[in-house]
Every structure is written in structure tokens, then in C-alpha cells.
From TrEMBL:
Family: Belongs to the multicopper oxidase family.
Xref: PANTHER family: IRON TRANSPORT MULTICOPPER OXIDASE FET3 (PTHR11709:SF361), MULTI-COPPER OXIDASE (PTHR11709)
Protein name per its UniProtKB record: Ferroxidase fet3
Pfam families in the record: Cu-oxidase (PF00394), Cu-oxidase_2 (PF07731), Cu-oxidase_3 (PF07732)
Listed InterPro entries: Cu-oxidase-like_N, Cu-oxidase_2nd, Cu-oxidase_C, Cu-oxidase_fam, Cupredoxin
Superkingdom of this protein's organism: Eukaryota
Keywords: Copper, Signal
Amino acid sequence: MCMIMRFIALFFLLILLQPAQTADVFVDWDIGYVMVNRDGVNTRRAIGVNGKVPIPPVVATIGDTVYMNVHNSLDKPTSIHAHGLFQNGTNAMDGPAFVTQCPIPPGKSFTYIYKLMQSGTFWIHGHTSHQNSDGLRAVFIVRDGHQSPYKYKYDESIILYFEDWYKEEFAQRAADTMDPNKPFPPPHGYGTGLINGYNGNEVKPIHFKPNKTYRIHLVNMGSLYSVKVSLPGHNISVVEVDGIYTEPLEVDLIDIATAQRYSILVKTHDTADFNYRFNITMHVDFFPYSPGKSPITYMGDIIYNDDAPFKSIPQVNKPLLVELNDIYLRPLDGEPALPVDRSMEIVLSNGKFSNGLNLDMLNNITYKESPVPSLYTALSMGSLAMNSQVYGPQSNAVVLRHNEVTEFVIHNPSNLPHPFHMHGHAFQITEYGFSNKDYPQSPSPCLPPPTLYAQGAPIKRDTLVVPAFRKDIID
Ligand SMILES: [Cu+2]
């Protein structure tokens, strides 16, 4: 081979050895009604994509640009939100109707375009009229690129996602819940758990090879139920929450509220001598205890070897379950608690309105969509954009300044736990304690639980649960 040919060969070899370049990812979603039987009992109308429910996960890589073309084949407006993405610089692609865009009318299309600047576990769902609850939801995994700072190694990854499913469509369930003349919770409120899209009673096994490390993406896409996940006989190490990498935290059980996500690493046993089981318990704290309805426990198989017996894990040897709590998690980047520029209180309450409905309120306002998307108001009002009044009396707007650190003290003086989610941000969770706000349902004076403070770097995430009668402080 002459010298020039060698150069050419070397040149081609170098091109082949280049790390994978970022790419364009095209996703086509035709949103329409589908008749499905998801709970094994009832066939009902659901909202699916390209004629399907469940909707297959979307997988991309950090640095990719997503072109998500959405066509609306429903008879009502729709829009799509990628939950957990900051959309920094692409705010108009976030998806909530009348906040960042007008919804997509029936028969029309819209293309969401954004570059993926984060990696981890997310989900994509309808953000108009709670269409997510009727099936319009899919897991969204953003893989790390070659330049990933991620220090944990794993051999393979698995997705486990959870949904709740009901006989009635969401609109019916919401009307019953808001009707003060109907019992709460509504008698038909108990749902069926779905695991990886299918009835939890028929959950497919997880296949493990010996001596490997698996990353399991856990996603709760449900609308009411929290999900407790455990893999008895295996150690669980949490390494990611809501797209934020964490210092590894060993736990026995993870309780995942609606819209929350986790990645866990599981090291498998050295040999394939035994098979195991995993447990998924779905629960809603405000439903009266009724085993088999709430909580509902589903059991799945962990198969190492089709011919091996199942290993029973004796309860006596089991140490006290360590339930995961945000306050014990640390972000991998070690960012300390930010110095606070200003503090605001958010108080949750519930009231009966002149329209006869029972509605929840934040700071005594029940949210109503503005006629104009708030983002458009912000972009068209000039200096008045800093005045919260211009966003409409019931949009309950709070105007934040760029790069200012705002502390939110979120009070939940009600008797129901509530998840809170913030679009476009991951917030630090710095304190967690008993709310001193008056509320008719506050428990009779007894010793309140101690206040917990984050030690060192507080965890950052985009969805947290404020338990009943508690407050959380986030920055
Ligand atoms: Cu979101």
C-alpha cells in the first residue's frame, strides 16, 4: 500500500472511531381515540397514539434534537408536555395549553422542536384536559452521550413504568370528585394498576443474567396512585431522581408518587441457581384501607433460569425497610443550598365555589386558564410583563426575576398528601416539617413529627410530595 493510500485508510479509520454524533430524532404522534380493555374487565374509550395504547417509550440521547410532530385526530384540543425538561430557550415547546401555547385544534398538527440538554428518566404526556389520565402518556428516556459525567457503570437497562386505570373516563371521575353532593372518595375511585402497560396481575417477568449490573428506570405515570417498589433478595441503589444524578443511596423500598421517576442500579447474584420476585404496591392514602383495592400489591417474577426454583426471602432476616425520603438524597454534583433572595408561601386549601363545585386552591385562588397563553402575555406586554396582574386574576401568576433564587414554603394543611411539580426547573428540597397553618381538619394537638433539614447538598428534583399536615421548603 502506498503512503497516500495508508493515509486514506487511517483517515477512514479515524472517522469510524469518532464518538457517535448527536442526531435528529423524529417522533410522529397521531393522537386519537382507541377502544381498549386494560383492566381485564372493561372495554372503554382511551386516548392513544398511532392507534395504540399503551404508547411505546421514546428513547433519545443527550444532544439530540427532537422533532415531535403531533397530529390531533381527537374531537377536542390537545397538547403535549415532556415532563422534566427545562426547555431553556425553547419555552414555547413545553406544552401546557394556555400557559406556553394555544392547544392544537382538532384536525390540526403542531411540531415540538427542542434540543435535549439533560439525560435521565422523563415522560411525555397530554397537557390539555388531563388527557394523560385517559392513556396519553409515554416513558421518555434520554441516554447519556459519550461525554457523560455519569460515573456509574451498568450492563443493561430496563424500564418499569406504572399507570392507574379506571372504568370511567377522566371527565366523569373529575365531575364526581368535584361534586359536593357525591361521597369522597367516589365509590368507583379505586383503580387497577398497570405495569409496563398491562394489567398488574399479568405483569411480565424481569429477566436477569448473573453477575451483571442493571439500571432500572422507574416511572409513575399514574394520576392518583403512589407506587412502592421492592426487589427482595437484591440490593437497590438509587442513582437518579427526576433526571438528576445522585450519590448512590441503598434502600429496600422506593415510594414513587405520580409523575416522579427514579433510576436504580441492581447488581445480580453470581449464579443462576434461584429465581426471585419483585413487589409493586399501589396505594392512595385518602382511600379507606381496603386490601386488594387500596393498597393493591402485584407480584412479578425475576427470572435467572427457567428451571430454577424461587428463593423465598425469610421475613425474619429482613432488616427494617428503609423507605426512601427526599431529605436523605444527595445530588452527584454536590451543589450546596443556594443563598435565598426572597421567600414566598404557598398554602393549599379547598373550598366550595359559586358554580357549586368543590375545588382546590393555592393561596385562596383556584386556577383558571387565561384566554391568552401566559408566555404570549409575557412577550407582548413590555415592562408591564413584570406585573402579575396582566396574566389575569385567576392565573395566580408569580413573576420571578432571572437568576434570582426564590424559596417557596409549601404548606399542605389538608388531610390529603399532594404531589407538587414545577415545569422548567429542578428545585432543591431544603426542609421538611409540620405545617403550623390553621386548617379545620388539623389533627388534635399531639406531638408533631420533627422537622428534617437537608444535610449538606440538598437533592434537586421536579416533583415532590407534601404529606398531609406538612410543609416542604424548596429553592
Ligand atoms: Cu412537567
